[in-house]
UniProtKB/TrEMBL annotation:
Superkingdom, natural source: Bacteria
Gene Ontology cellular-component terms listed: cytoplasm
InterPro entries: Fuc_isomerase_C, Fucose_isomerase_N/cen_sf
L-fucose isomerase C-terminal domain ranges (all copies): 339-465
Annotated protein name in UniProt: L-fucose isomerase-like protein
Entry keywords, A to Z: Carbohydrate metabolism, Isomerase
Keyword Isomerase appears in the UniProt entry: yes
Coiled-coil positions: none
GO biological process: fucose metabolic process
UniProt lineage: Bacteria, Pseudomonadati, Bacteroidota, Cytophagia, Cytophagales
Gene Ontology terms for molecular function: L-fucose isomerase activity
PANTHER family listed in its UniProt record: FUCOSE ISOMERASE, L-FUCOSE ISOMERASE C-TERMINAL DOMAIN-CONTAINING PROTEIN
Amino acid sequence: MKQLSLGVIIGNRNFFPDSLVELARVEIIEVLTKMNIKPILLDSNDTKLGGVETFGDAQKCATLFRQHADEIVGVLVVLPNFGDEKGVADTLKMANLNVPVLIQGYPDDLNKLDVARRRDSWCGKISVCNNLYQYGIKFSLTSQHVVRPSDASFQQELKDFMAVCRVVKGLKNVRIGAIGARPTAFNTVRYSEKILQRNGISVVTCDLSEILGKANKLTKDDSVVKERLEKITNYAKTGKTPSEALIQIAKLDVVLNDFMAENVLDATAIQCWTSLQQNYGCNVCTSMSMMSENMLPSACEVDVTGTLSMYAMQLASGSPSALVDWNNNYADDENKCVLFHCGNWAKSFLPDIEISNAPILGTTVGVENTYGALDGRTPAMPLTYGRLSTDDSKGIIKAYIGEGDLTDDALNTFGNRAVAKIPDLQKLMQYVCRNGFEHHVVMNASKTAGILKEAFENYMGWEVYQH
């Protein structure tokens, strides 16, 4: 995973032992380096021991942070002793990075509570947080009030915090392509561009006819089409898919990739049902799967907030996401259900992936016009699920998230399919229905609900229900 940069503030208060600050600086640099995190912090010659105590120290640290503003994704506050709460708060205020902040405090040793060796970080952390609250600066906390950076528990929490930073940074600048019109029957995927834009999320629209028009101008002899065809056949088994359908898929894939590159897009939501089949003669699922596998998530039925959810989960976990339907009960098990879609899930979910057709859609548009849908069963793996949605009547972005497991339970059907086991699933379905969420949900093979809640609720200011 790409190395990220973290601003580091080492709090200090001059009547505590200098050696504590010196040791903390060495330790935190070692920990961050081991975790492939680049620390941005004052040199030990810039201020006393490289710590932040006075207003002058805060000015120097804030200046350093501003110089690296483009690369700093979050700030870690380290308190080897009580620290100076105003120095920490002033640094963050003047730097004005508007990134997540994690507060860490060192524990005292029970046999070192004399004047020469005591830390008082337990108390100092409360004071720092109090000042940040007064300044209106949002921050995150470790589960243990005080913890050593060398502890495995802290390093896991720091790893999770970096994931929070990735989510927040990504969501504040994301660009989503909305290709085509929402299918008339799918009122469920309606959303507010204005609410998204106010939260830093840009939507670039394109009429489907523009995409199909460019695709129809390409031929099987064009080098770009041959290149895409090779990538497609290397990506998945083609099964019984005719060569003519594969060429149609490849031509469409060329134009979609060009559109993404031209508009610098991070994700797409594409009209499928049923214009593509009727006017072009294939499904776009294979292209969507390939994009999602390559960390450029793509959702069908122009589900813009669905693909936004895919992108957020991808940022949290570092792995692809998939858009699915809450589709069926699983026999009489109240905590299991079937997740399904025609066939656009990333390859990571489908070890037996094969290019096929869409039988349900084919009943109305002809099965021969639905090649490009994928067939495959998702095996047992961890599950984080949920989605973001704009609630226009409230003028907000809201979300629900949770964790469960995908299982190997028997499932005799077609398309992209999985069985999910979710504790208290019936209560979750009550919440989804009563709060007007869509029938689409997003799944990710991770356990990252806590990361997403912290990013969405604490830093983005969105309404979150964690099941």
